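Posting for a labmate who doesn't have an account.
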Amino acid sequence: MQKLHIQPERLRPLITGYIERWEAQSWSASDIAWGQLQAERLTEPQRSAVRFVTLIEDHIPGYLKDLLGHFPIDASVPFEQLLHNREAFRFFVRWAHEEDRHAEMFSRYQLEAGIQDESSLHAELAREGRKTWQFPQALPVQIFTYTVIQEKATQLYYQMLGRVVEEPVLKALLNRIQKDEAKHFAFYADLLETYIEDLGPDSLPAIQETLRAFKMPLAEQLDNYWRWSLEIADAAGGYDHTSAFEELVRVVHRAGQASGRSQALASWVTAVRAS
């Protein structure tokens, strides 16, 4: 795959469209009715799930650091790539702000609901947050493949957990956050489609590699991740993050049709479903 980036002119309208659609619809802690919180309606698995997702969302500084490292905005890259990366930066900083808000809201919820006291909470966040996480693959099309899966998987989890939670403030909070994750997924899906349309079938091996190696963020860094992730999946009614893979298949298939290369991509879609 000789060409690694799409033209800046292709990326710019995607970024601008995202900003215009969503910046006016931002929300904050003042939009949450904290005084209606009924902590006694939380189950122990739900309390554990809030702790887990707080740790995941709070890792945004390390996540963003690695992400920006793949899209440098300096003299180390050719000028056209620099123009591309400058456009990507406009989205990344807004995305990071929104994800940081999720961490802030879940942290406040823990304190308001008495899940942890402030000292214990911040010690836990600092202890886990200093662990290094990196994207498993480095090509832009692989990074955007990863984020498509991750954002959809996260959105589905919050949606499923919100359906079974009876505590009204957490239900409302999960609803707002899952909508954020849905719009992040939609943007990354549009971006990945554009990449596939430009790069063509040559991009498929890189996408396949990302899918085959996919693990959710912090799967190898967070203490007791696998045991804990099974517990919180049960808390959300049997959540399975691999259900997000089907969304990736749809993104790739749409891109194949748009680019006139659907036959080559259709065989790949079949192989993914079979696996």
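Reply:
Got it, the structure tokens are right above this. The chain has a mean pLDDT of 91.
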